């Protein structure tokens, strides 16, 4: 059970009240195949939902297959053991709805021992996962929470025929989990910054972030496609795979992490949400082997 | 930690007898009588023409404490019960924030605690605001949803859902209605929520009072207070009988501290009940300055939460 009060510290004993980066322990990702069939309840829930918005589920919508959030979390979590065990806080970040109306974060408590507080942060467009990380960093400061999980998911089943902007389209079901702990031997992830671009273009705002942080690697999400500034010489740009609006940038980080851990890397992860005109950036410092 | 600056509850004007609502979902006359006489439900409010965004806007638009302070709002949080509420990428909470003049605020949904998400959102808002350099910074928590399908309208053996919105203005340094503690326990065996098997559903109903009592005790213990000092319990509106079982487990002999006045007239309004009950308690003079009180809620899934505040 999660219990808190002003000034309380978590059971991990982490120091409270000190702004600090999140210690990355492990990062895993998984892209899924077709998945399983829809359930009987889905045939009621989704048509009722679409009807309430004046639309319908297209014919044959439920004849396809899907990976629900619960399916994806259940599949990937064993690969995180023991880093997922005894977590203080787990936050799921998504912009697409689940393809099975359910409670995957409640299900977590059946998958790992001694699960802490788990919930979801949704509906913030391409910067949703950054906001979820902000929530995690905030808890570290205030509760001294030590063992944390960010679970980013993309889900491709679309049960209507309304238009979806290209940058928000999901092409495959995918999950990325970042596990954080106090040791943080995998690197240090600094609390993200999500700022309105205001009168600046996204490229100008990103150029400022690049000048400030001086990364060797820039990982860019779907919202920055075609919006990049001139990148300083020596900074390598890695674009997130298309069709993964939330998981894409974190999948790049999870995939490259092992290599970065050999040579060391300063990585700026960034995305832009044009609906809110907000640029989100997050700095990951990975020390080289032997310097950890 | 969080403090509640203001609460405003909006209820749509259309009143629907619960019998009519339950009959539409195939409940028998005997079952309907059970919901009315035994569980205590009478009518609910619905807005058949209004959208979720309309509902959320109506909740906050009537909040006088928000007017002129929109620029101080850093976060708008929709505390959500139902797992999916809109066709992707329709975003009701962002639409609501824009219509309320709060497009500048960081706006997102907090979910997975179902009807217990409201207390989670208040706690989360408080800790986020504590990092803001402006002590006057605020967060707006919006609760309430549309009863658009069977699983969003009726919880078997538990309650009938109505539409309504409680808007909650949260600060980090207020002197009134300060949060003293917050506890949340998730009982993952029941994570299928309204789609549980019959067997798990029966076990959930059996275990329910024990789970609620356990989390309430944890929150009260953490607050440093004795349960006897809690002057009011502001609960979620589920059947009255289940509350009597919880009170027995907590050794509370009288139901007088339980503010269930809204249950017969609004039904269970998703995550809004505790906040709507707060307004009732204020209007009835059941809270005086310095009084400790308890908000509690249970979300299908199953997460139980409790929050101790001091008025």
Question: How would you sum up this structure, described in words?
Answer:
Chain A is an alpha/beta fold and 292 residues long. Chain A folds into two domains: 22-180, Peroxisomal Thiolase, Chain A, domain 1; 188-286, Peroxisomal Thiolase, Chain A, domain 1 (3-Layer(aba) Sandwich), CATH 3.40.47.10. In chain A, 24% of the residues lie in helices and 26% in strands. Chain A is built from six helices and 14 strands. In chain A, strands 2, 5, 6, 7, 8, 9, 10, 11, 12, 13 and 14 form an eleven-stranded mixed β-sheet that branches. The longest helix of chain A has 16 residues, at 128-143. In chain A, 54% of the residues are buried. Chain B has 311 residues and is α/β, with parallel strands linked by helices. Chain B has two domains: 3-171, 3-Layer(aba) Sandwich (Peroxisomal Thiolase, Chain A, domain 1), CATH 3.40.47.10; 178-310, Thiolase/Chalcone synthase (Peroxisomal Thiolase, Chain A, domain 1). Chain B is 32% helix and 24% strand. Chain B is built from nine helices and 13 strands. In chain B, the strands form four sheets. A five-stranded mixed β-sheet of chain B has the order 1-9-6-4-5, sandwiched between helices. In chain B, strand 12 (292-299) and strand 13 form a beta hairpin.
